[in-house]
């Protein structure tokens, strides 16, 4: 297999295009739209069935949200407790301030074990830190073992969905890829045959690997138990067979107690793959010692990389509740049309639109454009198993982006029409007289542009608004005027 | 210079300055209003378990205690299994004649290559969960190390009726002692290994056993 470089994203050095620019490109790809439409419709329907089966779904969501709130408000205590319990169980805990520090720790362990190859379970945290590229530069090749991750690794592409990273590829495209890269001579495009080709290819890697690398879905502060939730069995392979296991987890993945799994192991599978339970979940507590069950060495790397900045924002903090189920992607009308690549981030979709700009920091044009990649329809909030109010955070971040331009921007940015409009709007909204006058003016001013109850193009500086959406004309009588007439 | 640990903890504390000084974790209310125990009859719970396991494309049989050894032999013969992996402390009566048996033990452990080449594995389990059709292994007697149920392509698992709980929270409550005490690894298995990565079509059998067969005894 020839190593391929993935395209840069929000977590790579340098700039990425804005959502608007990338989305336009995605929208031109009719095949992508068909693949995505079919996939998201299927999973949406299945999720509804899986959730409707649960009479206590709302109680579980509320408990999940509250537990995450408790954990985040007292994260320092839980981190120390986790370090202590993992150490007591025979594991080693490392702390990483940023991506580079995490990569250096992991590469150091692999080098020390003399590993030239490592096997990996799907982990978005390692995608965020660009671990594979870092290892490759040191002569260590990381084999992705999740089927979809393998597909995009072979293709040299980025993930386009949290759960099903190769959702943008159809069976014919995957067959072509496997014929070229996996050294097989005959292969049909049946998913069963494609899957079997991957099984045979990776089995040898699992048996020979000295080091396994995983992410974590949850880690229990009280017992030091770490868990990986998966379907294929590659997670079990990577966390069981190699003598050394390294797990990278974001500091927000902690849950307080073992019993708390009773909440999250009900919320996650039904929200994610729309199943009652996913095929495999592994829970391990340090190393087993003489029982010889699993690795002899276990390293847990705790990653910050911007998470404490998210934590510091009282409205943005809830973003860290996320358990990476991807339900919000599947219901999002924007995601369904543009696909994941338009977000230029390892975290696409509605959750990515709020997580990415907070993790990398406001002030980068690419990620600053993400909070605008939404119609604020609220479907994401409705399905979120841990009740992240994504629309609320989106609006909050839009405000931050605009304020950032005002504070830090150049003169040109300060005179930006949107910025000027936002300031004028703020003044108008805060004064009832100004507001009413503006409404009357607008009603007269819109006459030349309204056609059949819609405004499809506005002139001059306002053209930006109608370039991507139609506008409803302002009604002849405002609510305030009606109220005065009726009750005044 | 501050260590990474000191820096991260300092950042966390600075980020949570809005949390009042005296607030304890338990002061943040967590309303656990969800179901913690089912109230169904035993027969219904076991029937639901069987039904849900079967929905994952696993094969399910129900058998009386005294018919168990014969049924195991019959199932393995029908499958044409030649080499069977057996964990420590599996009831001897379960192990049929006529197949080559590979016993895993504390001393000479089976190698990964041996496990890879074996056709199948026979185990008991720690629990079954009716609500989700899940089998729980906790590396206890008759279950063995995790690799045993991972590398062979076929897993035959014996579940006793009294091991089946109704709801997910009941399972985590029962497992608490094992995890807190010996810290043994726990594996949840819900159907055979599967993927939906290609056009969201479910395909059974990626890396774990491609076939799962469950015998419910009682």
Write the layout of secondary structure elements.
The complex is a heterodimer of chains A (488) and B (218).
Chain A: H1 19-27, H2 30-52, H3 57-73, H4 75-88, E1 92-96, H5 99-112, E2 117-120, H6 124-129, H7 131-137, E3 141-144, H8 147-155, H9 171-181, H10 191-208, E4 211-214, E5 218-220, E6 225-230, H11 234-240, E7 244-250, E8 254-255, H12 261-272, E9 280-285, E10 297-303, H13 307-312, H14 327-331, H15 333-338, H16 349-360, H17 365-368, H18 379-383, H19 390-408, H20 411-414, H21 417-429, H22 432-445, E11 450-451, E12 454-455, H23 463-467, H24 479-487
Parallel strand pairs in A: 1-10, 2-3, 2-4, 4-7, 5-8, 7-10
Antiparallel strand pairs in A: 5-6, 6-9, 11-12
Helix pairs in contact in A: 3-12, 9-10, 16-19
Chain B: H1 4-15, H2 42-55, E1 59-63, H3 68-79, E2 83-86, E3 100-103, H4 112-117, E4 120-123, E5 127-129, E6 134-137, E7 154-160, E8 164-165, H5 168-181, E9 186-189, E10 194-195, E11 203-204, E12 211-217
Parallel strand pairs in B: 1-12, 2-3, 2-4, 4-7, 5-8, 7-12
Antiparallel strand pairs in B: 5-6, 6-9, 10-11
Domain 4Fe-4S ferredoxin-type (chain A): 320-388
Keywords (chain A): 4Fe-4S, Electron transport, Iron, Iron-sulfur, Metal-binding, Repeat, Transport
InterPro entries (chain A): 4Fe4S_Fe-S-bd, 4Fe4S_Fe_S_CS, FTHF_cligase-like_sf, Helical_ferredxn, LUD_dom, LutB/LldF, LutB_C, NagB/RpiA_transferase-like
């Amino acid at each position: 297999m020839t190593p391929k470089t993935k395209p840069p994203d929000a977590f790579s050095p340098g700039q990425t295009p804005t959502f608007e620019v990338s989305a336009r490109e995605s929208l031109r790809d009719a095949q992508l739209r068909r693949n995505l439409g079919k996939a998201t419709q299927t999973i949406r329907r299945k999720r509804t069935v899986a959730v409707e089966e649960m009479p206590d779904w709302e109680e579980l969501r509320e408990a999940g949200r509250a537990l995450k709130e408790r954990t985040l408000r007292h994260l320092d205590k839980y981190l120390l407790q986790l370090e202590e319990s993992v150490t007591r169980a025979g594991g080693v805990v490392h702390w990483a301030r940023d991506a580079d520090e995490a990569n250096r720790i992991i590469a150091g362990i692999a080098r020390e074990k003399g590993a030239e190859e490592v096997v990996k379970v799907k982990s978005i945290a390692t995608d965020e830190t660009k671990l594979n590229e870092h290892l490759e530069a040191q002569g260590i090749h990381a084999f992705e073992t999740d089927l979809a991750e393998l597909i995009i690794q072979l293709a040299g592409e980025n993930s386009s969905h949290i759960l099903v990273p190769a959702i943008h590829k159809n069976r014919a495209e995957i067959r072509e890829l496997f014929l070229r890269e996996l050294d097989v001579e005959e292969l049909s495009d049946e998913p069963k045959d494609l899957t079997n080709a991957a099984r045979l290819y990776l089995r040898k890697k699992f048996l020979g690997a000295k080091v396994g690398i995983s992410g974590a879905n949850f880690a229990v502060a009280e017992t030091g138990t770490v868990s990986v939730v998966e379907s294929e069995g590659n997670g079990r392979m990577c966390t069981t067979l190699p003598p050394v296991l390294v797990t990278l987890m974001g500091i927000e993945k902690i849950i307080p107690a073992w019993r708390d799994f009773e909440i999250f192991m009900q919320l996650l599978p039904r929200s994610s793959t729309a199943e009652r339970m996913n095929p495999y979940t592994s829970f391990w507590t340090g190393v087993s010692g003489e029982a010889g069950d699993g690795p002899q060495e276990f390293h847990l790397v705790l990653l910050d990389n911007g998470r404490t900045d998210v934590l510091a924002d009282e409205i943005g903090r809830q973003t860290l509740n996320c358990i990476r189920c991807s339900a919000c992607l599947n219901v999002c009308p924007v995601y369904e049309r543009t696909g994941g690549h338009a977000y230029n981030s390892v975290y696409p979709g509605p959750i990515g639109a709020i997580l990415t700009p907070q993790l990398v920091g406001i002030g980068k044009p690419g990620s600053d454009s993400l909070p605008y990649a939404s119609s604020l329809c609220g479907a994401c909030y409705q399905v979120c198993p841990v009740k992240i109010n994504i629309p609320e955070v989106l609006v909050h971040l839009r405000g931050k982006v605009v304020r950032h331009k005002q504070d830090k921007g150049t003169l040109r940015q300060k005179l930006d029409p949107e910025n000027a409009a936002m300031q004028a709007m703020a003044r108008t909204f805060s004064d009832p007289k100004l507001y009413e006058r503006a409404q009357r003016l607008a009603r007269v001013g819109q006459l030349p542009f309204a056609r059949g109850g819609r405004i499809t193009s506005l002139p001059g500086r306002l053209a930006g608004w109608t370039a991507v959406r139609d506008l409803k004309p302002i009604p002849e009588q405002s609510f305030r005027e009606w109220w005065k007439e009726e009750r005044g | 210079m501050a260590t990474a640990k000191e820096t991260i903890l300092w950042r966390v504390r600075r980020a949570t300055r809005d949390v009042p000084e005296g607030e304890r974790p338990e002061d943040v209310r967590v309303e656990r209003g969800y179901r913690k125990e089912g109230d169904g009859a035993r027969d219904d719970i076991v029937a639901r378990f069987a039904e849900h396991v079967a929905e994952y494309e696993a094969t399910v049989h129900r058998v009386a205690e005294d018919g168990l050894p014969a049924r195991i032999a019959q199932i393995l013969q029908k499958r044409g299994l030649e080499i069977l992996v057996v964990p420590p402390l599996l009831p001897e009566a379960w192990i049929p004649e006529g197949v080559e048996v590979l016993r895993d033990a504390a001393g000479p452990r089976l190698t990964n290559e041996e496990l890879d080449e074996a056709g199948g594995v026979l185990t008991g389990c720690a629990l079954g969960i009716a609500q989700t059709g899940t089998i729980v292994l906790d590396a206890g007697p008759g279950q063995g190390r995790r690799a045993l149920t991972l590398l062979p392509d076929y897993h035959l698992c014996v579940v006793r009726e009294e091991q089946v709980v109704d709801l997910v929270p009941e399972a985590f409550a029962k497992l608490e002692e094992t995890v807190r005490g010996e810290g043994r690894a726990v594996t949840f298995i819900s159907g055979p290994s599967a993927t939906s990565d290609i056009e969201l079509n479910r395909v059974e059998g990626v890396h774990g056993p491609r076939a799962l067969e469950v015998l419910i005894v009682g």
